[in-house]
Amino acid sequence: MSRSPRFAILLIVPLCLAGASRAAEPQKAPAAATVEVHLTEYTIAMPKTLPAGPTTFTVHDDGAKAHSFKIEGQGLEELLAKPLHPGETGMLQVTLKPGEYKIYCPIGSHSAKGMAITLTVTPKP
Questions:
Q1: What whole-number distance in Å separates Cα of residue 47 and Cα of residue 10?
Q2: What fold, for 33-122?
């Protein structure tokens, strides 16, 4: 029994579409690590070593003065969108590469008074 070419095309098209839909499935981005940061006069309390990758810093102003959070290093220079007043919390999302970073409060002389740390970022395990 002979089948027409049109019948063959009807069988092939659904197979091609099924393969195409699998290939177009989006890859999931790695989940961002969350790091809690607590700012007071004149300290930054947070881990001093973190793994590389997407990272969300959740920054809390636990002090009596306004503070902020800035990170610099490995080609990265990011700052909270606005200073935090006592009791406020802000978030900063970055992608960390292995190496050293300076983290500090850029308000007035806070950094000079001790609100600065060095963060070491290690390669992903």
A1: 60
A2: Immunoglobulin-like (2.60.40)
